[in-house]
Design brief:
Strand content of chain A: 15-25%
Distance between the termini of chain A: 40 Å
Helix content of chain A: 25-40%
Number of helices of chain A: 14
Number of domains of chain A: 2
Radius of gyration of chain A: 28 Å
CATH architecture of the largest domain in chain A: 2-Layer Sandwich
Oligomer: homodimer
Structural class of chain A: alpha/beta
CATH superfamily of the largest domain in chain A: Bira Bifunctional Protein, Domain 2
């Protein structure tokens, strides 16, 4: 039996094959994301992996359906596995916006899905950190969000040498568009051309721009000048005050493909330009209104950062820690007559919060010791009869420093510390 | 826009409505599950939420399809949202069993799905802790797994007053079955009758048992006697040695509905009998062979514990902690001229790992203070000009003890400790 194409299994380390996906690396990234988001005062939420197809069409138009993992359920409902979190979040916030003080700062790590027929070997799911702020129009909120993005990457040991945030503005592009074209309905078409400018054939872009009244030269000049809007300048100043100015630059090549962005937009890229965007986001001040059918109107902004490009980047820079089970004690049972009290010792150590392993069945002492080494246990613990009496003592041995300690079963847990050698 | 029936949104606390699902409670349960599983040396894995329909039919027969959230994908594949984790796990282990030392001890917390047309208001998804052991036939492994189940519940502050593990054995029932009926092919039919015994009309059970050559009276006598098999006795002794004997009892009413169990089976119940089973599991020594098409043969056992019944139980016993954002410092910006250095202070505190909040925009001092109280911040931090110079100092105020400290921006993070009053 095979898994479906485009889906991943996550295995514990050490990995069975070099190309297997690591559950430990995933946990490391998720835990880091969560810790930084919480430091910024963001609260966790989650929604269903399956939503009505209507929710995505309302937000992105019917053309989105071609990329969705959508189907008809047994109750004849048109549904889709979520391709992004923002519509779910907008739905959730619109349903209960009055229950939460503004600004609302929330995060989630959803698994997202897409189904494109043609692209062989491409993943059909990934995980994404989503951080969003609701109820604040001031660019101070944009700066907070971008600072969080920067610190999420820094917490994974990436530096200003590794990545940069390219800042842009839909407002700036909207004003540029209005210079030549008064038909607002065509603005999105224009944004799409800008979005593809770096990837598409120059003559193709030239032709498509000309149809809207623009020359490629003036577009390029506008990008090259990169004059920040007043809002962008405030974002830059705010980040500079935090000491994060070195992580951002104005870059009007960025415009973000999605229709619903309204103000500041941004993308994080590796500086060597080897990978696709690490993260992207921006303001979407009108979306809540659309999703709520006009009932709720809240300014909003957010970003998403996927796990796949990030993991590639961390691997290529050698920034992933070496993952292993952290076994604090391996209890050696060399005398089967002592299995009962040894199990009691295992239980006591675990109740004190220690990670403990032992052999389920009788095994030669040297094999048990070998297993303790394989598991990279910090200590072995062995029960032994003391002096002449019936009392049992615990012999602890630190496998890194070779230090030995003799203690009682009741005090053993407290003794499993110190003497750890950094490896 | 509404969410799909049977799916849940998870909101941060305080909850918008009393019946909303809490993201914080979910995180509390998941984090506790993970911590205990790791203490037992279990390693995390995960697989796709979507698998081929074939995987589930191979395991459970075609009758399972009626309960599945299955559909045809855009590539015309018959697929299903996973109704349980065991087939995925068996597939993963069978694919790479040689890469891992035995016994393999793994856990996951998948979201699982089902689609039953008739049951209105019933959830179509839930989360489940799955813990499994591969490669060990000895009942010591069964005891280890049951000890982990017990300690997972104890870590959530449930006691022997709250729950009990009912232990049973497919072997015992198989031997009982063989007394009267030599047609092994009908054994599963017999197990199904036993499984429904506590819920179904007595005469109905009587009739169905008679068709297989049994009287209800002899079945009831067998259950009442509850004589442990040799394996079950070893499980009981092992758990008693750990001091966990008070959490288990033999109860042959338990047999587990699924076809693939082979030896020891068990279920956890609340002692008052108010809820459905909290958890259930057992041995499934033949499943890997089935899933791998005969290629891999590994003894296996595992349990699953869902989040829904558990949460109901914790709520009813008043065992859920009070959840709140833990804001360690609220930075007061009373003078807008100090916003820049205040942002720098926010950044410094967060870089030191502190959770920090502040107002994005100018706000009256009393409103900022009120917000700090609402957020239940432990400290406020305010920059102020020192003596006569340009240097800025930080005034820290502990909102619980009212203690004040004057320090430098560089040392403020280290000062945010002590004096915390337990609430």
């Amino acid at each position: 039996m095979e898994r479906l194409p485009g889906f991943r299994d996550f295995y514990p380390e050490p990995l069975p094959t070099p190309d297997a996906w690591s559950a430990d690396a995933r946990t490391y990234i998720f835990d880091t994301w969560k810790a930084v988001a919480r430091r910024y005062g963001f609260r966790e939420y989650d929604g269903p992996p399956l939503e009505t197809l209507e929710l995505y069409i309302a937000k992105s138009g019917a053309e989105i359906v071609g990329q969705l993992y959508n189907f008809k359920d047994k109750g004849n409902r048109e549904v889709a596995l979520r391709p992004e979190m923002t519509p779910t979040l907008a739905r959730m916030v619109a349903a209960h916006d009055r229950s939460y003080k503004k600004p609302i700062k929330w995060f989630a790590i959803p698994q997202l899905f897409r189904y494109e027929r043609q692209q062989k070997g491409r993943l059909r799911e990934h995980f994404q950190l989503n951080c969003d702020i609701f109820g604040e129009t001031d660019p101070a909120a944009d700066a907070e969000l971008i600072a969080l993005l920067i610190d999420s990457l820094r917490a994974l040991k990436l530096t200003a040498e590794d990545f940069v945030i390219r800042l842009s503005s839909r407002d700036a592009w909207q004003q540029f568009f209005a210079r030549r074209c008064s038909d607002e309905a065509r603005a999105y078409e224009f944004y799409q051309i800008i979005d593809k400018l770096e990837r598409e054939d120059q003559r193709e872009s030239e032709t498509r721009l000309a149809a809207l009244g623009f020359s490629l030269a003036e577009v390029k000049e506008f990008i090259a000048a990169g004059v920040p809007t007043a809002d962008l300048q405030r974002v830059l100043d705010n980040l500079a005050a935090r000491g994060l100015g070195g992580f951002v630059k104005i870059d009007y090549n960025v415009i973000r493909g999605l229709a619903y962005y309204t103000g500041t937009v941004f993308e994080a890229f590796d500086k060597k330009g080897e990978f696709r965007a690490i993260a992207g986001g921006g303001r979407y001040n009108n979306l809540i209104k659309v999703i709520s059918g006009g009932k709720v109107d809240l300014p909003a902004l957010g970003f998403g950062m996927g796990d796949v490009v990030l993991l590639e980047l961390l691997k290529s820079r050698g920034l992933l820690p070496k993952f292993r089970a952290t076994v604090e004690a391996y209890v050696l049972i060399e005398d089967e007559a002592l299995r009962g009290p040894s199990l009691q010792l295992v239980q006591r150590l675990r109740e004190a919060g220690r990670t403990v392993e032992y052999s389920f069945t009788a095994m030669k002492p040297d094999k048990q010791f070998k297993r303790a080494l394989e598991l990279d246990a910090q200590w072995t613990a062995r029960l032994e009869a003391s002096g002449g009496g019936a009392d049992l003592q615990v012999r602890l041995r630190n496998l890194r420093t070779r230090e030995e300690r003799l203690t009682t079963p009741g005090e053993a847990a407290g003794q499993l510390s110190g003497g750890t050698v950094e490896k």
